[in-house]
Predict the 3D structure of the following.
Amino acid sequence: MIDGDQPSDVPGDEQPGTPAARVDPGRGDHLTDNFDVTTTETPGDGGGAAHRHHPIAGWVKNRTTSRMRCHRRLYDPGMSQPIPFADINFKLAVVHELMYAQGLLPKFRLTEYAAAQGFTYDAWSVEAVPEALAYFEALEVPAELAEKITEIEMDGGNSIYLQIAPGWDGEDDLFDVDEFADLRHFPHLKSMTLLYTGNEEALEMLRARGIDADWV
């Protein structure tokens, strides 16, 4: 049994194109709260069965051409190419801002994802749950969202870290950023708070680029 919050509602039989306002881990639409879902038939699946998908391109990649609209107009997966991140920890810092701070990406919930995918994990793990980390590695972030990043706030209590390593206490370098090649994708970034690494040269480099940088 996994400790932690569990989905509290089970949706009815919504028709395609109507808001999926609740969670049903068994159907795999656990990240589609308040979305309008378009179902399509996937050729070659034996019966032309309709599939429901959430809008993250990394989730639906190579499966169907489904499109999804959100009441908050998150984005159309076909609008642009994804940001080609070079460093996973930099990517996680950016995704936290977009997903949990700004609400521009559907929120990932480890309990719901594990239930839907049929795996278990240690609810007190201080290491990354492999399936959760793989999810974020595969997640494609549309390039047009780069302009939304004006600040990055890294903290040991950030939701994204606790969805990947539920028992992580911030006392090791699991999510440290020490590679900054991805800065080129975010010209509007003006402030960055980093998990402490002691690399003062990194802070000076960021400040030289006009970014207000400091340790958390």
Q: What stands out?
A: The beta strands are 19-20, 35-37, 40-41, 50-51, 68-70, 151-153, 191-194, 212-215. The two ends are 34 Å apart (CA to CA). The CA atoms of residues 137 and 158 lie 17 Å apart.
